[in-house]
Design a protein that fits this description.
Residues 335-471 form the SET domain. The protein has 513 residues and is α+β, with helices and mostly antiparallel strands. Helix content is 15%, strand content 22%. The protein has helices at residues 58-74, 81-85, 160-167, 172-188, 236-239, 263-274, 302-307, 372-381; strands spanning 8-9, 14-23, 26-36, 46-50, 109-110, 129-130, 132-137, 140-145, 194-196, 209-210, 215-216, 311-312, 337-341, 348-352, 361-364, 368-371, 390-393, 400-402, 405-406, 413-416, 420-421, 428-429, 435-441, 451-456, 467-468, 479-481, 484-486, 498-499, 510-511. β2 and β3 form a beta hairpin. α1 crosses α4. The radius of gyration is 29 Å and the shape is elongated.
Length: 513
């Protein structure tokens, strides 16, 4: 573990990380050449820093390492004439080995031959700061441009010698620091999420932000909560709140229980469906979505689990009380999860550390809620193979919401879990899944914003990977580009046919056939 520094580099000041090398005084540690933000495109401030000063920008270190490894996998390692002759030529200042010394003004300034924490480098006249001097201020390091310190043209970096030095650098210290940071973030979730990778040293992106609720972006509006159930009471239903489906106003638009309808009601319901009308369900017998007694209490009943009806839960305006049996998903995840690296090339996956019962709630899918147009824009900007975790909130597409007004795809919103979300972003595809995703609404009048909740569709033993069918159109089914999900729209462009690696007995062989 690198020693802690009282002074760190702030993310807002950094343009990029150019290269890395072993620390001069400890070859087992790595350090990084930082390019500071500047209006000078040719000679911006540049400085070397160890991990102890880069705690605030570890995600940038991670991105740099990933790019470096990708470059190493693809670059031609055949030595060129210049590289063979390089050891015989005088090294230029761009190779950072010319013994030039510059002094940094001010009592809080850092000498160009000093490291940023004030320690001398082991190399004689080691140059660590270019085009600037560094100042310590309120726990941060600040680069102040100057022409008195050694000049270095960033457009010529990294040099060949830098690339060779980077290729021979041991990056385990950085990888361990990145892993510790990621695990600490998982531990902050409730309940905490564990992490395991016995395959390689890869860690999921530190740029991803864990959130516990939707983040609404421009153009997205959430309908105000108008009302909840007013006839229900906390002491009803064996002190479990709502007891009668006909009295619970939250279930007004819920799917009717056809078996409990009279012949006349069944006939009228069938007529409306056959005529493509929105069936009138007010006053009809319904079913509460969750079992409330027995060993499977809290699990989704088959009426909803098998037929994928919209789940309407009670809300904060209801009179039924907080422990009503019609409240489940809104209480959040209660099961223990683990993010792990799969061993068959499917990236990271998610599994439960405890056995799950059929119909048991697992967690919701979270992210930024954006407009359909913004989703199209983000997809267009995404290069081939880039992860795009987009789920359309289009459960009610085609429904009428007023005289002559129909919900179209263009009016719906989309959940983008690429930059922020929850642990369910790691759920992989399987042609024979053990998890389903369901629509859960707390406001029956809001057809555009609702929760996407994962439920176990089978009994799942502890430690088994959680999977769902990316081609399941029952609720919100994303499309996958390789190992990453994309929206349904990608299915129509003919570009997303990829080999399926789920390994199920009845695997379809390909996604998006």
């Amino acid at each position: 573990m690198p020693p802690r520094s009282r002074y760190i580099v702030e993310q807002s000041k950094i343009e990029s990380i150019i290269t890395h090398r072993p620390c001069p005084d400890d070859q087992k540690r790595s350090e990084y050449l930082i390019c500071w933000k500047s209006q000078d495109d040719a000679y911006p401030p540049l400085s070397w820093h160890g991990l102890e000063e880069l705690g605030g920008v570890l995600h940038l270190v991670q991105q740099h390492i990933e790019q470096h490894k990708q470059s190493e996998r693809t670059r031609n390692l055949t030595p060129s004439i210049d590289s063979l002759a390089g050891s015989k030529r005088k090294r230029s200042e761009n190779q950072l080995l010319t013994p030039e010394i510059g002094l940094s003004p001010g009592p809080d300034a850092i000498h160009t031959t000093d490291s940023a924490n004030g320690k001398k480098g082991s190399g004689k006249n080691e140059i660590r700061v270019f085009n600037c001097f560094l100042q310590r201020k309120e726990g941060s390091l600040i680069a102040v441009p100057t022409t008195t310190n050694p000049a270095l043209d960033v457009r010529k970096l990294p040099t060949l010698e830098m690339k060779e030095q980077a290729a021979g650098t041991n990056l385990k210290d950085a990888e361990h620091a990145i892993r510790r940071r990621y695990v600490s973030r998982l531990q902050l979730l409730q309940p905490p999420v564990r992490f395991e990778n016995n395959v390689d040293r890869e860690t999921p992106s530190l740029s991803f932000k864990f959130i516990d609720e939707y983040v609404f972006r421009e153009g997205v509006t959430k309908q105000d909560l108008v009302m909840g159930c007013q006839q229900c009471r906390p002491n009803m239903g064996a002190n479990r709140g709502c007891e009668y489906t006909k009295k619970c106003e939250c279930l007004e638009f819920a799917a009717p229980d056809l078996d409990k309808l009279s012949e006349e009601q069944q006939a009228e319901h069938k007529r409306q469906v056959d005529n493509n009308e929105i069936p009138t369900t007010a006053g009809l017998a319904k079913r509460f979505p969750y079992l409330h007694t027995g060993g499977r209490a809290g699990c989704l009943v088959d009426f909803y689990l098998l037929q994928r009806h919209v789940i309407y839960e009670c809300n904060t305006a209801c009179k039924c009380g907080p422990i009503c049996k019609n409240r489940n998903v809104q209480h959040g995840r209660r099961v223990e999860l683990e993010v792990f690296k799969t061993s068959n090339g499917r990236g990271f996956g998610l599994r439960c550390r405890q056995p799950l019962q059929r119909g048991q709630f697992i967690d919701t899918y979270l992210g930024e809620v954006i407009t359909d147009a913004e989703a199209d824009k983000r997809e267009a900007q995404s290069g081939p193979g880039r992860a795009s975790y987009l789920f359309s909130l289009d459960k009610f597409t085609g429904d009428k919401i007023g005289p002559g007004e129909v919900i179209t795809q263009e009016k719906t919103f989309v959940v983008d879990g690429h930059f922020m979300g929850g642990p369910t972003r790691f759920i992989n595809h399987c042609c024979q899944p053990n998890v389903q995703i369901h629509t859960v609404s707390y406001n029956k009048y809001d057809y555009f914003v609702y929760d996407l909740a994962f439920f176990a569709c089978d009994d799942i033993p502890a430690g088994q990977e959680l999977t769902f069918d990316y081609m399941d159109g029952g609720d919100a089914a994303p499309v996958k580009d390789g190992d990453v999900s994309m929206t349904d729209r990608a299915m129509d462009d003919g570009k997303s046919k990829v080999e399926c690696k789920c390994g199920a007995e009845k695997c379809r062989g390909y996604l998006w056939m």
